[in-house]
């Protein structure tokens, strides 16, 4: 059975880096990101238009390439979480969380009893056709599933201590775009108000033993937050990264010296 490589790195105190999949419906991109050295892919079913079959293909490609597939669901629904885990997702991102009771319920969906209330729908494809017992599979899946919760509102920041105290929470992931809007400074990602709020959240995560994380829109911003203490760091998405590299390539070509024929 496959282990969650990103989760293993986090357990060793390392920082992991990922990139979003949001627009291009291709299972080849996770393979490219794995070859580039990313630790995880963030497959977006909240703002991306992917259907379940496309995401299943992306998950399978990720697992085969050795990169951890983490999927953001569109809302807190057991049916969404359960089907993605059964499709092989090694992590679930729960968006727009503010309430402790709702979060406790959703976290329970990610793990089998007694740690949670996930239903058992495991089939041979999910364990590489290995002959494993129910207890072996349940223990392995519980140990290798990454529970990520998004903090993207002022209310979530205010309720941070009670949310972070819940068992089964591995990582929080700041959504700086929505958080900046909630704080009245839309798109001002270096505004002192946003920076202070996020730095305070990092400190609270460290106090509660939860990994602090963030999803950013560029490599430069991701690097800056890693240097501030973030350990689950998302850098851009596939469409932004392709456009950025394409622009760099065109600039390099346009400024190239040309040889004039005599």
Key terms:
262 residues; alpha/beta; TIM Barrel; 8-stranded parallel barrel; 16% strand
CATH topology: TIM Barrel
Q: Give the end-to-end Cα distance, rounded to a whole number of Å.
A: 65 Å
Number of domains: 1
**What's the CATH first level?**
Alpha Beta
Q: What are the low-pLDDT stretches, counting only 5+ consecutive residues below 50?
A: none
Look at the structure and name the CATH superfamily.
Answer: Phosphoenolpyruvate-binding domains
Q: Helix proportion of residues, in percent?
A: 40-55%
Number of E-state strands: 8
Q: Sketch the topology as an H/E string, one letter per element.
A: HEHEHEHEHHEHHEHHEHEH
Strand portion: 15-25%
Average pLDDT figure:
95
Question: How would you characterize this protein structure?
Answer:
Helix 2 runs parallel beside helix 3 (52-65). The chain has helices at 5-11, 28-36, 52-65, 78-86, 100-108, 134-143, 154-158, 160-164, 176-182, 192-208, 219-227, 238-254, and strands spanning 16-21, 40-44, 68-72, 91-94, 146-151, 171-174, 211-216, 232-237. 38% of the residues are buried. The protein is globular. The protein has one domain (5-254): Alpha-Beta Barrel (TIM Barrel). Strands 1-2-3-4-5-6-7-8 form an eight-stranded parallel beta barrel, surrounded by nine helices. The protein is of the alpha/beta class and 262 residues long. It has twelve helices and eight strands.
């Amino acid at each position: 059975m496959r282990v969650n490589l990103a989760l293993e790195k986090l357990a060793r105190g390392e920082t992991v880096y990922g990139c979003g999949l949001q627009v291009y419906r291709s299972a080849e991109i996770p393979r490219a990101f794995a070859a580039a050295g990313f630790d995880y892919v963030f497959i977006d079913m909240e703002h991306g238009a992917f259907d379940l079959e496309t995401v299943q293909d992306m998950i399978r490609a990720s697992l085969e390439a050795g990169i951890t597939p983490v999927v953001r669901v569109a809302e807190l629904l057991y049916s969404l979480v359960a089907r993605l885990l059964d499709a092989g997702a090694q992590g679930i991102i729960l968006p727009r969380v503010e309430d402790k009771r709702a979060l406790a319920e959703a976290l329970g969906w990610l793990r089998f009893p007694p740690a949670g209330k996930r239903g058992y729908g495991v089939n041979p494809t999910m364990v590489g056709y290995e002959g494993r017992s129910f207890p072996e599979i349940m223990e392995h899946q519980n140990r290798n599933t990454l529970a990520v919760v998004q903090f993207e509102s002022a209310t979530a920041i205010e309720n941070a201590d009670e949310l972070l105290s819940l068992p089964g929470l591995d990582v929080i992931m700041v959504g700086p775009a929505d958080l900046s809007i909630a704080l009245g400074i839309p798109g001002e990602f270096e505004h002192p108000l946003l920076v202070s709020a996020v730095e305070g959240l990092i400190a609270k995560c460290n106090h509660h033993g939860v990994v602090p994380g963030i999803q950013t829109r560029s490599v430069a911003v991701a690097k800056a937050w890693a240097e501030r203490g973030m350990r689950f760091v998302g850098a851009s998405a596939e469409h932004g990264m392709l456009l950025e590299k394409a622009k760099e390539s065109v600039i390099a070509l346009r400024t190239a010296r040309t040889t004039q024929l005599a």
